[in-house]
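Two folds, back to back.
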Amino acid sequence: MTAVTGLAAPVPTPHDTERGTMTAPSDDYEFLHELEIEVEAEVVQVELSRPEDAAELPVTEWLFDPADAEREEIGLRGLLAAVEVLEDDLRPGDPAA
C-alpha cells in the first residue's frame, strides 16, 4: 500500500499572478485528469489490500493496520470526488472555463 504524496501543491489557476505564470485551462484539465487516474489507482490498491481480511488475523500477523487502510480509502474517495468536481468545472468547451 502506498500513500498519496505530493498533493499539497496548489493547483494553478489560469491567471496565477503569484508565480507570474499563465496556464491554459486545458493544462489544468490534463493535470486533474492525470491526478484522477492516479487517485483511482490508489483506491484500487487499497481495495485489493482487503483490510477486512487483515482484521480477522492476530495483530502480530498484520502487514498494515486495517483501520489505517480504511481511513486512507475514505480520504482517497473524498479526494477523487473533489478532483471530479474540479474537472467538471474545467471541462474543455465549457463556457465557464
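---
second:
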Amino acid sequence: MQPIFAWRVLTAGGIGANIGAGLTIMFGGPILAVLLIAAAVAAQHIHRSRVVRNRSNPD
C-alpha cells in the first residue's frame, strides 16, 4: 500500500492540487543526471584535447 500512497503524494492526486512539485521531482532528477553526465564528458574532452595540444607544443 505504501507505493500507491507515495505515488499519489508525488503526483498530488487531489482536486485542485498543484502538480508542479511532483513533476519537478519525477523529471528533474533524470534531466539533471543527463546534464551532469554531458558536462563531465565535455570537460573530459576539453581536458584531453589540451593535454594533447600541450605535448605537441613544448613552449
